[in-house]
Amino acid sequence: MQRKWFQYWFNSPYYHILYQQRNDAEAELFIDNITKFIQPKPESKMLDIACGKGRHSIYLNKKGFDVTGIDLSEQSIKYAKHFENQKLHFLVHDMRKLFYINYFDVAVNLFTSFGYFDTEQEHVNALKTFRKCLKADGILVLDYFNTEKIIRNLNLCEIKSLDGIAFKITKSVVDGKIIKKIDFEDNSKIYSFEERVQAFSFNDFERMLTKAGMVIQKTFGSYLLDDFDEANSDRLILICTKA
Predict the structure, then answer these.
(1) What spatial distance separates the first Cα and last Cα of the chain, rounded to whole Å?
(2) Domain residue extents for the chain
(3) Mind listing the pLDDT tens digit for each residue in 187-222?
(4) pTM to 2 decimals?
(5) Which of the following CATH numbers is that of domain 5-146+201-242: 3.40.50.720, 3.30.470.10, 3.40.50.150, 3.40.630.30?
């Protein structure tokens, strides 16, 4: 089976160079706000789906929760495992494949770690696995970019210089996907990667979640939990429960 773009790119050392300046303060602010809103019990079991290097998982664990982080990237999980303890675990796992059943109180999928697959059915199937891993009264928190605003303000081309590498980043919208091409040279070798993320709207998520047996209970438009406004919000944050 042919490997997908995310299986190559997320395991590349260049991915971590390009995105080294992740904003931890912003991530922690969001976790503070969302946990205050959903009020999980102190010993809640949480699943961080597509956890990357584990920044959200680590902070949730610091707040006292029992956290499991899963990600497809072996490199990211290898890094995250340095932070493991009795109530914090990381595993290489594909979000489309079934994990524990009726086990977690809360599942989170943050920072647009969704929309990577080719078909809507694949995304619905992933949402079904999210649902199955939750207890009957479990909560799913899904954080996506606000597609409408992203497309309206698309930066078509930019150069980012990091660690002596000039990354040329070009963005376009093709067949309902936001495509980011990343081209650069390192040690006289030319590299080219891309990210392909579905341009899902609120209506798309509502339809897919319904198919997956879930209901949207609340929608926010920023990490400060402002109301979602399709024209102006930076994020689309969905709080969902089992139907």
Answers:
(1) 34
(2) 5-146+201-242, 150-196
(3) 999 999 999 999 999 999 999 999 999 999 999 999
(4) 0.94
(5) 3.40.50.150
